[in-house]
Write a structure and sequence with these properties.
The complex is a heterodimer. Helix content of chain A is 80%, strand content 0%. By secondary structure, chain A is an all-alpha fold. In chain A, helix 3 packs parallel to helix 6, helix 3 runs antiparallel to helix 8 and helix 4 crosses helix 6. Chain A starts with a helix and ends with a helix. In chain B, strand 1 and strand 2 form a beta hairpin. The chains are: A mainly alpha, B mainly alpha.
Chain lengths: 279, 325
């Protein structure tokens, strides 16, 4: 920036923007250590709300269900999303391509209330005609989550594939590898980091979803967001602050770790590139 | 002896079965190798047809039915009156009801208004931030980008909850303002439209910043220097060079904020209370509290019609971008 005045403006807005994003979360963490029952009135330091949280069986059950849904969802969404991304980037034109690419990108912008309502009505209709799914809960939530998560994975895979140089694949083909062999031995290993990123994104999206899950769930299947929502609808609760603190901490550690690993890998690659250039 | 023979027979049939299985597996492997392309395409395609496209037709069908007290709580579209005589019943009353009842029209307009104003506010906050991130030095850039993405990975619900604590009558902001003597009575902020705007801007601003950043990063910034060298004032440069160049990013970011904000349910429910009517909330309540499935379906179809143009525009932009790459 050579223009001093404008850069001053930019620094200020960025600082305000970052503060705007982070102060509410910092306060959330701060008040989780509040002794008082009334959240925004400080009554001294205490960790009693963590105790209250850990004693609640409901919370543990909800965490268990949410993690189970998120894991199964992420795995299936990764597989289906990768297949969809491959088909869209490497298959050229095929019949139904417009419909397919429309269906794959629509869930990204579809309002959640519509997705949730339509999937619930599908499950109800299916039950009427073929008797499945006979009870709504884990299976229906997971299917609903896979349907929107795979779209995000497909977007990641698509951008990886378009950014990836095709020379290795072409070299393998020139050496006589059949297309299927090229896929399993060259393309998929190269795609692995993108697939991992997709898995993580699908996992988080599933953990975060309230609306679609509350439409397609049945009696007894309470995910963590559904539990949190039913508690905070009635007002502020210090044990939810404690839960928020744990979630924020877990996410921060996860993201920082991922960033560190990526940073290391990039450094390594740069080093290798430099060495190969020197040779 | 007999036993032995039987045993031998069993073994034989087993090995025959095994070789059959082996042949089948071999054949399957062969088929997979020959037809893997259609398989790669078929699995996600079938999944989406079943779990994404089919549900919309069901919603459309139910929106054309009448509500009844039964399970399921709506009339069937096709009745078999006698053998072979089909009776198709299509009711457009639900749409007529939406059209006539002021509440729905008002709610639709209010949702559009809240979503548009929030989009503009996100742009005002997000644009300078995206610009600052792009023009920052290498390390700072990565740190800032990380800071923008990080909240996206934490729970959306809890980020909305954080604002409940800030905006409540006994909340942090009111306590602070009373303590420093700016006000005597707490300001009413929670359960007002103001709270809804704050909540939407807070949770959606990363969706504005990231597309803007992606767009700005590819631009040729030497054009700005050229404009300055040719004597353009900073304001002129901004309006004639920067703004037009970043227009695709502005559109992509705005659509990513506007479309989901229109159908938002959680934020108006938790921060707006009963005072802020938004269409997502009406749909949710119509379905869960009133158990009027046909009207809820009609609301969903109407919302979809409202958003279909912006959604197609977004897809169009994405496709153009993919082709350009």
């Amino acid at each position: 920036m050579n223009n001093g005045k404008r850069s001053y403006f930019l620094i200020t807005t960025t600082c305000f923007g970052i503060a705007f994003l982070y102060i509410p979360m910092i306060l959330l963490v701060f008040y989780s250590f509040n002794k008082s029952r009334i959240v925004p009135v400080w009554g001294g330091f205490s960790t009693r709300w963590y105790g209250v949280l850990f004693e609640s069986e409901e919370v543990w059950e909800a965490v268990g269900l949410s993690l189970k849904v998120a894991t199964v969802n992420a795995t299936f969404a990764m597989l289906l999303g990768t297949l969809a991304g491959l088909a869209l980037v490497r298959f050229g034109r095929f019949r139904g391509r417009t419909l397919f690419s429309g269906m794959i990108s629509a869930p990204l912008v579809m309002p959640e209330v519509i997705t949730g309502l339509s999937l619930l009505l599908l499950f109800i209709t299916l039950k009427e005609f073929i008797g499945w799914p006979d009870q709504r809960g884990f299976t229906t939530i997971t299917i609903a989550h896979i349907t929107f998560s795979m779209a995000y994975v497909a977007v990641i895979i698509q951008s990886r594939l378009t950014g990836m140089a095709q020379d290795l694949e072409e070299a393998a083909q020139d050496l006589g590898a059949k297309p299927f062999r090229v896929l399993t031995d060259i393309t998929l290993p190269l795609l692995a980091p993108g697939m991992l990123a997709g898995w993580l994104l699908a996992f988080t999206l599933s953990l975060d979803d309230l609306i679609i899950a509350s439409f397609v769930t049945g009696p007894g299947a309470v995910t963590l967001p559904i539990l949190i929502y039913s508690r905070i609808r009635l007002g502020l609760r210090p044990d939810i602050n404690a839960l928020a603190t744990i979630i924020i901490l877990a996410v921060a550690i996860g993201v920082l770790l991922a960033a560190w690993i990526m940073f290391r890998q990039q450094k390594q690659r740069e080093l290798e590139l430099k060495m190969s250039e020197e040779v | 002896m007999g036993c032995f023979q039987f045993g031998g027979f069993d073994e034989m049939s087993e090995s025959a079965e095994r070789s059959l299985q082996g042949r089948l597996l071999h054949r399957l492997g062969y088929l997979l190798q020959r037809n893997w392309r259609s398989l790669v395409l078929f699995i996600p395609f079938f999944w989406l047809l079943l779990f994404f496209l089919a549900p919309f037709f069901i919603v459309l069908k139910i929106s054309l039915a009448e509500a009844v007290i039964a399970s399921p709580p709506f009339t069937p579209m096709i009745d078999w009156v006698d053998e072979g005589i089909m009776h198709i019943r299509v009711v457009i009353d639900n749409y007529a009801y939406l059209w006539e009842d002021d509440l729905y029209a008002k709610t639709y307009l209010n949702s559009l208004k809240i979503a548009s104003i929030s989009t503009i506010l996100c742009l005002l906050v997000g644009y300078p931030m995206a610009y600052a991130i792009v023009r920052a030095k290498h390390t700072t850039k990565h740190v800032l980008l990380m800071l923008v993405i990080l909240p996206f990975w934490t729970s959306f619900l809890l980020r909305v909850y954080a604002w409940m604590g800030l905006l409540a009558d006994q909340g942090t902001i009111n306590n602070l303002l009373i303590a420093i003597g700016v006000i005597d009575e707490p300001l009413r902020m929670l359960y007002t439209p103001f709270a809804v705007y704050v909540g939407i801007v807070y949770t959606y601003v990363p969706f504005m910043i990231l597309p803007l950043y992606a767009n700005m990063e590819k631009l040729d910034w030497t054009l700005l220097e050229a404009a300055a060298d040719l004597g353009a004032k900073p304001m002129t440069t901004f309006f004639t060079v920067t703004l037009p160049m970043t227009f695709p990013g502005i559109i992509a970011g705005s659509l990513l904020v506007f479309i989901p904000a229109t159908g938002e349910y959680v934020i108006p429910d938790l921060l707006g209370g009963g005072n802020v009517l938004m269409i997502g909330r009406i749909l949710y309540n119509e379905f869960n509290a009133n158990i009027d499935w046909p009207v809820a379906s009609a609301v969903a179809i109407a919302l979809l019609l409202l958003l279909v143009l912006p959604m197609m525009l977004y897809q169009h932009i994405q496709m153009k971008q993919n082709e350009a790459e």
